[in-house]
Amino acid sequence: MFKKIFKAITRYIRYTDKMTLLLCMCCSVLSVVLIEGMLNSNMPYVYPRHIPVQIIAAAIGLILAIITSCIDYHIIAKLWQLYVPVSILLVLLTFFIGTQRGEADDKAWLPLPFGLSLQPSELMKIAFIMTFSQHLNKVKEKINSIFQVFLLGIHGLIPISLVMMQGDDGTMLIFCLIFLSMLFAAGIDWKYILTAVVAACVAVPFVWEYVLSNDQRIRFAIILDLESDPLGKGFQQLEGLTALGAGKLMGNGIFSGDHWWTPEIHNDFIFVFIGQSLGFVGCIAVIAILMVIMMRFLVAAHKAADDMGRFICIGVFAMFAFQAIFNIGMCLSVLPVIGLTLPLISAGGTSVITSYLGIGLALSVVYHTRKPEFER
Q1: How far apart are the C-alpha atoms of 42 and 266, rounded to whole Å?
Q2: Residue 116 — pLDDT band, cuts 50, 70, 90?
Q3: What average pLDDT does the chain have?
Q4: Which residues, in sequence order, are CB contacts of 258 under 8 Å at separation 6+?
Q5: Taking the CB of residue 184, how many other CB atoms lie within 10 A of it?
Q6: pLDDT at 374
Q7: What is the arithmetic mean of pLDDT over 333-337?
């Protein structure tokens, strides 16, 4: 028995993407160190419990990633009847017992014991990537028929609508971009893409005037002139820019105790703390690590044994890439504040576990592509 276990471990180490796992663990270690640095600076709303929560979430996430990567992604896809209803039910529960987190204005979290919370929409990203990959794989030969495009649109609209009704604009946007990225990878005809672009451009004035709330419009408009409301909507990003600038080239050091506080600095604005503690060099290094991880998802998509594996890797890539882009864009004040975490680094148990589950799916594609045929 021990011989079989040893053989299985050896086989896994041989065929899995060790570099991706190592880089992800480095991000998790950095996350814990950054939060410890915030505690050392006595920053408001950063509590000692954030450290064990982050460590436990990373440990659980890593274990789940390894377990997921060992399971054939085709099997995971076939089990959609188990995890899809659960993910949707959890999101629906937020409409009845949902709570707010920090400065967020949407009740997208479910309360858990010991003061913890769960954000179901994060877990629904994984369910959506799997089911949409399976859907695209089934209709890939007929994907450009109007009927199939309609059905694919309905598939994407379900999670997008649920999250929109929660009021979680950031997560809704990520769902939209995952949906579009996977459609593009599946070979959707350019006529549909151009039609959608034209329709979106035409709809912008209507959406701005009648769909967006006044608060949402202000969030977009404020980035053009943060000084117009320095103590209100512009406060967080102005403080963030001040903190980033304080780090200069090499930063003040994580444990210097001399840091500028910004609202949600441990979560959505953790890149600001990276900037002031590690400087411009540290920011570039973190971006580089995240880019390497995401590039490995694209390489896995390119080398995948079949289209379904490719769609999964593209979905995971989109989830990571757009969250990172919008998170960093918020901190640099070039994009509006829409409440998105920096993958693997921001404090938040659900976000960390979801990131690792996505990594596990991509690694499942890698592992079951690399394994020789006679071992599958």
Answers
A1: 12
A2: confident
A3: 90
A4: 41, 252
A5: 13
A6: 41
A7: 90
With the C-alpha atoms ordered 45, 322, 146, 212, is the resulting torsion angle positive or negative? positive
Q: How far apart are the first and last CA of the chain?
A: 20
Q: Using an 8 Å Cβ cutoff, are 233 and 222 in contact?
A: yes
What span, in angstroms and rounded, lies between the C-alpha atoms of 15 and 371? 6
pTM: 0.94
Q: Percent of the chain, pLDDT > 90?
A: 63
Q: How far apart are CA 268 and CA 281, in angstroms?
A: 20
Question: What's the pLDDT at 103?
Answer: 59
With beta carbons less than 8 A apart as the criterion, state whether 282 and 34 touch: no
* Nearest-angstrom CA–CA distance, 139 and 357: 26
Six token digits for residue 222? 């404020």
118: β partners:
110
Distance from C-alpha of 341 to C-alpha of 343, rounded to nearest angstrom: 6
- Rounded to whole angstroms, the Cα distance separating 227 from 234 reads 7
Q: Please state which of the ranges 194-203, 223-232, 257-266 shows the lowest mean pLDDT.
A: 223-232
Cα separation of 191 and 314, whole Å?
22
Closest by CA to 260, choosing from 278, 280, 245, is 245
Decide if pLDDT at 314 tops 50: yes
Distance CA 252, CA 246 (A): 8
Query: Cα separation of 127 and 108, whole Å?
Result: 17
| C-alpha angle 341-346-324 in degrees, rounded to nearest 5 | 45
Among the residue ranges 113-127, 207-221, 231-245, the one predicted with the least confidence is 207-221
Helix, strand or coil, per DSSP, at residue 91: helix
* Six token digits for residue 75: 């099997």
